[in-house]
Design a protein that fits this description.
globular; single chain; 3 helices; 4 strands; four-stranded antiparallel beta sheet; alpha+beta
Length: about 100
């Protein structure tokens, strides 16, 4: 079992989020909105991303409406953003890039 993540300082969160393509900090969470060509591609992204989330034992707050996926990441156990959020966001970005969404 992995160690419990630590809540990152706000300055570090803002800096790292600014370096992570497509992500911002909104309401204390890492936030991203993706648009895919079709519903099937958006849902396929979510199914694939769910595997990463399960591997990290970290589960996003997200929604899907037709071809759009809205993602919010925070570590509920530390009541803020942790390294685990950035890890999952990076994996999601790599997965999304392979599927060519429009941000």
């Amino acid at each position: 079992m992995s160690a419990r993540p630590a809540k990152l300082p706000p300055e570090e969160v803002e800096q790292r989020a600014s370096e992570l393509e497509g992500w911002t900090v909104r309401d204390g969470k890492l936030h991203c909105e993706l648009e895919f060509p079709t519903f099937a591609e958006a849902f396929g992204f979510m199914a694939s991303a769910a595997i990463f989330a399960q591997e990290l034992d970290h589960h996003p707050d997200w929604s899907n409406s037709y071809n759009k996926v809205v993602i919010d990441l925070s570590s509920h156990d530390v009541k803020g953003i942790s390294e685990r959020d950035f890890d999952l966001a990076g994996r999601m970005n790599a997965l999304a890039a392979a599927r060519s969404p429009r941000a």
